[in-house]
Amino acid sequence: MTNKATYNICLIFLAAMLMGCPKPPLKGDPSEADAITQPEETPQENPRAIASLQLTDQGRRLVEERQPDRAIRVLEQAVSLHPTNGQNYYYLAEAWLLKGFADQAKEFNHLAEIHLKDDNQWIIRVAEQADRIAELEK
Amino acid sequence: MDYLFCMLKKILKYSLFIIILVGVVLAIYGWHLFGQVEQRFSARRWSIPSTVYSDTNLLYPGQHIRLSLLSEKLSNLGYHQVNRLPSQKGEIRMGTQALDIFLNDLKTPWTDRAGFLAQISFSQDRIGMIRRIDNGEPIPILELEPEEIMQFFGQERERRQLISIEQVPEHQIQAILAAEDHRFFQHHGVDWRGILRAMLTNLRHGTIRQGGSTITQQLAKNYFLTPERTFTRKLKELILALIIEFRYNKREILEIYLNEIYLGQKGSVAISGIGEASYFYFGKPVKKLTLSEAAVMAGLIKAPNHYSPYRDVARCRSRRDAVLNAMHRWEWISQTQLEDALIQPIKAVGFIVAEKKAPYFIDYLSQQLNTLYRPEDLASLGLSIYTTLDTQVQMAAEEALAKGLTRLEKSKPALQRTVPEEKLQGAIIVMQPKTGHILALVGGRDYSVSQFNRVTQARRQPGSAFKPMVYLTSLEQFTPTTLLSNDPKSYTVNGKQWEPQNFETVTEYTVSLQDALKKSYNLATVDLAMKTGLDRIVDLAAKFNFSTPIKPYPSLALGAFEVIPLELARAYCVFAAEGVQPYPLSLKGVVDENDRILEHQHLKIERLIPPAEAFIMTSMLQGVVKEGTARSLQRRGVTWPVAGKTGTTNDFRDAWFAGYTPDILALVWVGFDNGDSIKATGAAAALPIWADLMKAIPQYRSEIEFKAPQGVERILVCPVTGRLAVGGCPDPVEIYFLTGRTPDGKCTLHAKGGIAGKIIEGVKGLINDE
Asked: How far apart are CA B508 and CA B76, in angstroms?
């Protein structure tokens, strides 16, 4: 008898022994939902992300200084380094708002929403931004 | 007597008449030349070619790095190696553990940073730390200046950097006057004493040994006249010199002259003006030239290529010494200064005549520039054109393509062609999927053989590389575990029967949607396309901005129509960028010579599909790389998260691989221009090139996972039935689904049988094993 045959016999007995064991976690099971949460990548693990934080901050300052073109340029660099940081998209939306382009602001606001969905504070800001974009569109 | 007097009177009268006539003619001619001088000097004096720059490069701690690529980059930026701590901008000291670098100034329309001394330490294949050497302060991110890629030359093919007279040190002016015209500040354009002296010298030697031209005459000659030696030309030169001196002051004339003079040759391009020459010979601005270097520059004017330090250092030195001695003779430098300068070695900085860089990218860029500027303006206005090109990625792409095609030809001698125009071809485009920035573009194997850009101009069938569009369209109706028929079927197209086939004979007659994509099954994909609706797929393709006609035939599912490779790459960006499509950008901005921004091109995006659908596609395309037709990527060292798809067309005419990470996307095509078979699949021909490219640009590798957006759920399913897994399901798998579109029931096959099912499976195993 080969190893595989032995394995199959063991499997049969193991299956019999497992009768009555709890079922594997399924859809809707909260404990399972926790177990399979997408691992969040943190800046500590990603040098590109750490480097991008400086650019994000620089972009924010340029937005505050009402220099949208320079801000967009810096934030583009930040996005290229850390495309999953929603703050970059938030500030890009702000920069496009400053330039008066609601359609582009809306697209970046949407991306910010996708990436900041788990951050309670930021998602409020993103929603407020969406309102301002809607105002501009009117 | 009266007769003689009368004759004399007549002669005088006629002479006076002739003199007046000549005077009037000269006055009219002088007035005409004055107009010419006014017109020429008040208009744009020089044509300055516009310069195209790459994007800046970012360095940061923890970044994967290839030292050889970094060294090459720094060399291309003009940095040169020294054996001590760098003390001037542009110097580097490369060690095994660290690089000391005196950064050049960084000046772009968006950044203005003065150069400083920094140290970049390395830890294995990564950057360890970056810090300022002066105060030890760590630097989180360091930006290297953009690299010059090319210049838009006019017919003159001249390089010139304009300088003002205020930037030129006094010893440089004195050196030039000593070499060319030491009485410049005394004469009025024409140095009669100089002319007389030159005539006497020439008569004494019986040949032309000395010229009497002043700097103003030289300027008149260069600016207005042709080089032939005739009396009328010389006369015109004298008149022009007088007019120039009448109209402009000495410093103005000197400034024009310093910017005008020809000072050497870099390949086919003339080095004109002292501003450009100062960088060409000594790698520094003119204001920083030492006395010895200034004397070299002055000595060059007489015969730039003859006295060039690049041609003959001894001859250059002898000429420099003559200039220095002349300066001393006119008491412009002291004995000590003379002696110090005479012992200085002549160290030219060196230059490389660069080959045409990224030629296909430049052609693509030029098309866009030509919609904004006339070619003559590009050749004369001195614009700075900033692009998205990353020269390191471009080099890596060119190298990967060249090696990949050669390797393929070696492994399959039938692909070898002797005529260069008929050789196996390939193309690569590398983009940032979130921003649309084109980092590299290789439109063919050899630009000198063929300028046809296979990324932007070719129309090729995408084959299976188009299948993701079919699967995306189907997501509204089906799920990744929906079962599809993989049975041979016949379809009627325009009254004819069409029977698609799988690439290989398979025994799976029913296959899940995600497995069909993973293994690139043709029959199951056509089945899916027919169930989804061909018109809907065509509509989606139009939405994805494919510009080529796509007809609703069943063969559409297998990519049996033509696409432009750039548009296919752009389509894949949507999957990598949460459903938004970026506009492909090559031009970032244009700045005029006074640093005024003329043109801004920002990233522009368009939302095409929900992020959740984009993620489901990415998840399925990751399956292609993990277990499907692109699984050889792992064997080739690509072990980080990648999503991608291979493509092969009928008769192996085209081989494709499109792959991406959250940071970068590259598409590779391989084929013959005439449609000959390459006898290899996308996995065999295009994929290895993609792998080589990605391994060569570690700086773009973050190795992060694709992030799941809202609207998707990861569910444990039975791999056999595709339904929710139950306890008895063998090796259940976790699969992403759109929220609300998850499998609607538990696995009945394994649940119904329960333990019996397991026993049956076990017995089956035993029988098979025996």
From this structure: 55
